[in-house]
């Protein structure tokens, strides 16, 4: 590779980093607006002002408010999945790792909408605008948990046959149960405690005690 080509690639990489950083600024501003004003009351003008740019400049990056909302949901899904994956790869008791995985994935997402006065509206818009993103995110989390449970069973840490489940079925059961807790939870702490109790029950049922 020539020196000229190397410089061009460095410039392209720098521009790409700058674009990503600016996009992140837009999404962070949009998150603040959606949480504070709700989806319907938030305008492109509100988001542009929060970022510190003009409304026409914002339209150069996103077609409309729904596009921003979808991008934000995708960003939050990717980030919480990344954090959950990191937690699940740490050393330690498998059920403790699973609990941390749920903390970083499910509890973090729940806290965002639960702590907002517009939570119900945002959940509704989520289902209308970004249902496919949420479904894909859940599928990835199922795969992560399945892999961890399979490894733990191979290592002799747990016996899923105690519940007559395979690793994927157990992962789906845990995730579907925690999703159900959201409807009854009044606060983030209520939800967190429900998740903790579920994992504790799961632990008692499947962990091998020497």
What does this molecule look like?
This protein has helices at residues 3-37, 44-51, 55-59, 65-88, 94-114, 119-129, 131-154, 167-184, 188-206. The protein is mostly helical and 210 residues long. It has 2 domains: 1-62, Orthogonal Bundle (Arc Repressor Mutant, subunit A); 65-210, Orthogonal Bundle (Tetracycline Repressor, domain 2), CATH 1.10.357.10. The chain starts with a helix and ends with a helix.
CATH homologous superfamily annotation of the largest domain: Tetracycline Repressor, domain 2
Order of helices and strands: HHHHHHHHH
Q: Count the helices. How many?
A: 9
Beta strands, count: 0
Percent range of helical residues: over 70%
**CATH second-level architecture of the largest domain:** Orthogonal Bundle
CATH class of the largest domain: Mainly Alpha
The portion of residues forming beta strands comes to under 5%
In angstroms, what is the radius of gyration? 21 Å
Structural class: mainly alpha
Q: Terminal Cα separation, in Å?
A: 60 Å
Number of domains: 2
Short description:
The protein has 210 residues and is an all-alpha fold.
Topology:
Layout (H helix, E strand, L loop, with lengths): L2 H35 L6 H8 L3 H5 L5 H24 L5 H21 L4 H11 L1 H24 L12 H18 L3 H19 L4
Keyword list:
210 residues; mainly alpha; Arc Repressor Mutant, subunit A; Tetracycline Repressor, domain 2; 2 domains
